[in-house]
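Q: Here's a chain of 77 amino acids. Please give me its 3D structure as tokens.
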Amino acid sequence: MTVVEVEWLDAWASVESTSIKKAQSNRPELTRTIGYLIAENDDGITIATDIYPRSPKQAKIINFIPWGIISGYWFYQ
């Protein structure tokens, strides 16, 4: 299977109290995720961090990342 590394802008949340002024300066978190390519479509890319070699139709820890938040991606063979 093809391995892909995806760089994307992730949303985040905090449960800590903070000032409104500080909260107004929040930015997305640049994130890189590496996994096995499951699918690509018009909406985004789907990758899995785990696959089962003896059962190739099974995977877990699935991530779907929409194209609109992806800043780059690289395929590895």
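Q: Can you summarize the key feature?
A: The CA atoms of residues 16 and 22 lie 12 Å apart.
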